[in-house]
Amino acid sequence: MNTFCKVILALFVSFTTGISVDAQVLDKSWKSITEMDSNDQWFASSEAKAVAENVLLYQRNIGGWPKNIQMQKPLSDTQKKELLGLKNTAEGSTTDNNATSQEMLFLSKIYKQQPDESYKKAFLLGLDYLLKAQYGNGGWPQFYPLKKGYYTHITYNDDSMVRILEIIIELKNKTGYYSIQPSEEIIEKCKIAFDKGIDCIIKTQYKQNGVLTAWCAQHDENTFLPAKARAYELPSLSGKESAKIVLLLMSIENPSKEVITAVDAAVTWFEKVKITGLREERIVKNGKIVDKKMIPDANALPLWARFMELDDNKPFFSDRDGVKKYSLSEIGDERRNGYAWYTNEPKEVLKKYDKWKKKLSTESNSIQKKVTKAPKDDYNIIVALDGSGDYTSIQDAIYNSPSFPYKRVFITVKNGIYYEKVRVPEWNTKISLIGESKEKTIISYDDYFGKINLGRNSTFMTPTVSVEANDFVASNLTIQNTAGPVGQAVALSVVANRVVVSNCIISGNQDTLYTSGEGFKQYFKDCFIEGTVDFIFGNTTAVFDNCTIHAKSDSYLTAASTTEGAKYGFVFMNCKLTANEKATQVYLGRPWRIHAKTVFLNCEMGKHIRKEGWNNWSKADAEKASFYAEYNCYGSGFQPENRVAWSYQLKKSEAKNYTLEKILGESNSKVNLNWYSDFK
């Protein structure tokens, strides 16, 4: 054979081999293709690029993808046109049946071989979709935007929520599993989302007669209780979904006590409910299951039921009529053969559990020596998420601080997002909580009235940070409640005397800042405080000095409940009142209780402030008993001539009574008279 023929033959073999390999890949299921090794050269091929174009077409502009689509199948021009028309609809966007997570994985793998910016953009849009879809309580619905019916439940079904959290943990930990890495800002959001998701998992673990067990495939998004989905998917304990949840919890580095407890309890439950001596036999014809039977077999490996009774773990089954049966043979062919009623997935949990416990014990001893040992100096404590300080938790640092100390305790908090509720008990006086920077040292939580749901006073149980100890100082921090516009949700609660909050961001929506304590005095200096309805409320004497008070919606800045006979209530000095663009009709305040006192002096008022200034909250008595006043303010929102008749414009002689010394000065000679200026 001459050289020319050899070249032609080589080219032919190469060409036909390429066709064969590509055809083999495209004959696989979409799930199989997304699970191929990212180093597979197929991802560098033109065929992979063609599939990627399909993936981009199927993605809705909101960021999600529909489910049960074989993305690798060629599309006609008509189909492509139809998909373009669906872009803005968000139709079918979901995380069910591996949707969205599979497409993001594929985009990551092809981006590694073909770094096209459109793939990166689509991947990040998908991540944004996942973050937006998360509930304030940490769970995810099956569809987003929300779809009516059982789709709004927190969905563990078919491991939907676990897959989302697996994506987020890889990204936040920067493992490199995904070739596309988000910005630091998005990574911080991922950290919060992950912690919230784990918190949701902990809170939804079902207690059976007071004992923690496992999870249902779906839980009510408000009550957290097991919930019904399709007619044959009844409230139950799931042997399948619970397995992946536990494996996720076991993957967490340095797990909390709550996570460890959840895993231990679930493993105990798996051992208790495993089924032995029973084997599933399937009869298959033409690749289709035509019958399933459960056969006694002493040598059969353990199985677990998909659905178990909530009160006694008894396995049950049902047809589309939703009637419980207690034997698989009792239900019809369609459901018996077309659904996975048993699983062996918990075997992976039991297989890894002992090794996890051993590793945990070793790490715990190491961390105990490194992090939770007593600090070198009880009065100078460092908190750092990376373990470089004395503690990784702000609450741990406070709980281990001296009680009723003779001198001030300084707790320095390094940059990071501390997703925890922080309480400063009455006996932990003289604590200074000092952040590394107010923008990057963030204490965050998301409790709200409906989530607490313990009666009419649930508001007061929602704070991210609760200060109950006198002589407390906070500076250079962000304290936020991220529950969103869901009703009362406190970021900072201060029920203590001689408290200073300086150079802090206090962020929330309704009821952001609660300041209380009859006869107590508090000082807020150089702070940014934002919210919606009544976002500064309470009965204490509080001065806001050189603060920005930011309204996020049409509402009321303050809701004072000043005690009858108190000389001062809320006093705003040299503050700037700002607002979002959508906030155009904002009142300075309204009386939570009729003796409310609120005064603004030398403040710049934006145009969002209503001309009448104040609202009586439909309380005629408040017009006589309250004291609402202003002095020497300016800006387009300051319209003294249009204020309600029962408010006041102070005279210069009256304004002289509003100094820090007169408002905050202590008559008790045993304490520092100038506590508000000598707090550093």
UniProtKB/TrEMBL annotation:
Gene Ontology MF terms in the entry: pectate lyase activity
Enzyme superclass (EC): hydrolase
- Has UniProt tagged this entry with the keyword Hydrolase? yes
What keyword terms does UniProt attach to this protein? Aspartyl esterase, Hydrolase, Lyase
EC nos: 3.1.1.11
Which reaction is the catalytic activity of this chain? [(1->4)-alpha-D-galacturonosyl methyl ester](n) + n H2O = [(1->4)-alpha-D-galacturonosyl](n) + n methanol + n H(+)
List of catalytic residues: D534
List the pathway annotation: Glycan metabolism; pectin degradation; 2-dehydro-3-deoxy-D-gluconate from pectin: step 1/5
Spell out the family assignment given in the record's similarity comment.
Answer: Belongs to the pectinesterase family.
Protein name, as recorded: Pectinesterase
Native species: Flavobacterium magnesitis
Q: Gene name, please? A: pelA
